[in-house]
C-alpha cells in the first residue's frame, strides 16, 4: 500500500506515487551498488512522461525552453515543471548546462517549492467511500454509521445513496 500526503499539489502527489511504485517494481532488480532512489526517480519520470511523448511535444533537441511550455506540459501530463525539466535532461533533449541554468532561474524565481500558476489538481481516491458502502451492503454497519463515516447528514446520505439528482443513463 502506498499512502501520500493530501497537503501537496497533484503533480507532486503523482510523482511520489510513481516513485513509490518504482520501489515496488525495481525491488531486488538493481545492482548492489545502484542508487535505488535515483532509479525510482527515473522510473517515475519515464512512467509519467515517456520519452516518445516528451520528444513529440518538445522535439529531440532544444537550445532553449520557455517556462510557459513547461507549465502547459505540467497540466497535460500531471508532472511538475521541475520534473519535466529533469526528464528533458535524462532524455538528452537539453544539455546539462541548460538544465542547470534553468534550475537557477527556477530557484531565483521561488519556484523550487511553489510553481507559478494554478496547481495541478490533487489525486482523489474513492476507496474509503467504497469500503463504507461495501460495509453497509454487507450489513456490517447501518445507515447512520455510514453517514457518520462519510461526514454527511443522514438526509444527504440517503439522497446520495439513492443516486438522487443523477440522470439515468440509457443502456442500449
What report would you give on this structure?
The chain has 172 residues and is an all-alpha fold. It has two domains: 10-108, no CATH class; 127-161, no CATH class. It has helices at 10-26, 36-48, 51-58, 67-77, 81-90, 96-108, 127-137, 143-149, 154-161.
| Secondary-structure element pattern, one letter each | HHHHHHHHH
Strand proportion, as a percent range, falls in: under 5%
- The class by helix and strand makeup works out as mainly alpha
Biggest sheet overview: none
Radius of gyration: 22 Å
Termini gap = 38 Å
Total beta-strand segments: 0
Average pLDDT figure? 90
Spans with pLDDT under 50 lasting ≥5 residues? Answer: 168-172
Helices and strands in order:
Elements: H1 10-26, H2 36-48, H3 51-58, H4 67-77, H5 81-90, H6 96-108, H7 127-137, H8 143-149, H9 154-161
